[in-house]
């Protein structure tokens, strides 16, 4: 008779965390396809909404800020931002990815409650699948951004292209970590959804998507600016500006100091810490998901 060691036993309802995602890649693909099909069921435009919604958002912000408030450089406003349309859209596509990823990940456990109560599978699959679905919506917008940049005279080098990858990775890790954190908390406290909505509303304006970073430094001073710059979303947006907007200018535009030597590592470290914190919280709470749902 074989003897089972207590070390081989695990707490019911607990898995290996994010490590199980790699072993469940097929399930992850199925969840991503399911979410895409459910989201566009009965929709006429389908995936084209990935173009329409950010396009309308861009037009509204460009007219309101670029034209009415004078952020676009022109003969009347030589101090404005050159190619403001590219500057604006390069920030919008990244902040939209973060907003959709975190918003859906925070609701993913509750929305899949029926499935969680019926069978066991790694629960981290649901927030991660939400981030992947958001990435699917992100890439069509990225194609539009690249086309616009080419028409604006885009001439990137390898470092600038790698900066775009780094910015996407930082924001993707941040969305995953916060999605795990709020996805688990939302099972017990449904107010978490409202908290996430407020966080996303603030995130759009608390990063240099629609204005220049120099405005923050001028108004708040160096100390407050350092705190502002340590925000991973701010770092990701500035890396996108450096990759897509800066190569369309004459090179005289100022980028945040120490973007690569200091802020890029800070952004990666903060994002990874958030993932670890989110995974820790998720694992502590997931044991009672089925009962609470």
Could you write a compact summary of the structure shown?
This protein is mainly alpha-helical and 293 residues long.
Present the secondary structure layout.
Elements: H1 19-23, H2 25-39, H3 49-68, H4 84-111, H5 113-118, H6 125-151, H7 158-188, H8 191-205, H9 213-229, H10 232-245, H11 259-285, H12 289-292
Helix pairs in contact: 2-6, 3-4, 4-6, 4-7, 4-8, 4-10, 7-8, 7-10, 7-11, 10-11
Approximate helicity band: over 70%
By secondary-structure content and strand pairing, the structural class works out as mainly alpha
Give the overall average pLDDT: 83
Instruction: Identify the overall geometry.
Output: globular
- Counting DSSP E segments of at least 2 residues, the number of strands comes to 0
Whole-angstrom Rg? 21 Å
Distance between the termini: 39 Å
Output the helix-strand order.
HHHHHHHHHHHH
Hey, roughly how much beta strand do the residues contain?
under 5%
- Distinct helical segment count: 12
Given as residue ranges, the uncertain stretches (5+ residues, pLDDT < 50) are: none
Q: Tell me about the biggest sheet?
A: none
Descriptive account of the structure:
The protein is mainly α and 293 residues long. The protein has twelve helices and no strands. The longest helix has 31 residues. The chain is globular, with a radius of gyration of 21 Å. The two termini are 39 Å apart. The mean pLDDT is 83.
């Amino acid at each position: 008779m074989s003897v089972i060691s207590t070390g081989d036993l695990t707490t019911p309802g607990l898995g290996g965390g994010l490590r199980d995602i790699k072993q469940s890649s097929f399930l992850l693909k199925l969840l991503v396809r399911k979410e895409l099909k459910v989201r566009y069921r009965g929709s006429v435009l389908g995936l084209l909404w990935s173009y329409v919604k950010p396009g309308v958002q861009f037009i509204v912000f460009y007219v309101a800020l670029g034209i009415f408030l004078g952020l676009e450089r022109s003969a009347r406003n030589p101090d404005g931002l050159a190619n403001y349309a590219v500057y604006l859209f390069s920030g919008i596509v990244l902040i939209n990815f973060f907003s959709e990823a975190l918003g859906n990940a925070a609701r993913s456990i509750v929305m899949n409650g029926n499935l969680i109560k019926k069978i066991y599978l790694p629960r981290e699959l649901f927030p991660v699948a939400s981030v992947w679905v958001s990435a699917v919506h992100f890439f069509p917008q990225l194609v539009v951004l690249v086309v616009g940049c080419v028409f604006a005279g885009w001439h990137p080098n390898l470092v600038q292209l790698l900066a775009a990858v780094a910015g996407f990775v930082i924001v993707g890790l941040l969305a995953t970590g916060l999605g795990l954190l709020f996805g688990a908390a939302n099972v017990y406290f449904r107010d978490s959804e409202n908290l996430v909505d407020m966080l996303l509303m603030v995130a759009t304006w608390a990063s240099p998507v629609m204005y220049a970073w120099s405005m923050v430094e001028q108004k708040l001073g160096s100390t407050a600016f350092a705190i502002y710059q340590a925000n991973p979303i701010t770092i990701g947006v500035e890396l996108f500006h450096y990759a897509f907007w800066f190569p369309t200018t004459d090179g005289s535009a100022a980028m945040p100091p120490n973007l690569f030597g200091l802020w890029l590592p800070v952004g990666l470290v903060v994002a990874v810490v958030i993932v670890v914190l989110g995974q820790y919280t998720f694992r502590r709470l997931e044991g009672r998901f089925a009962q609470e749902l």
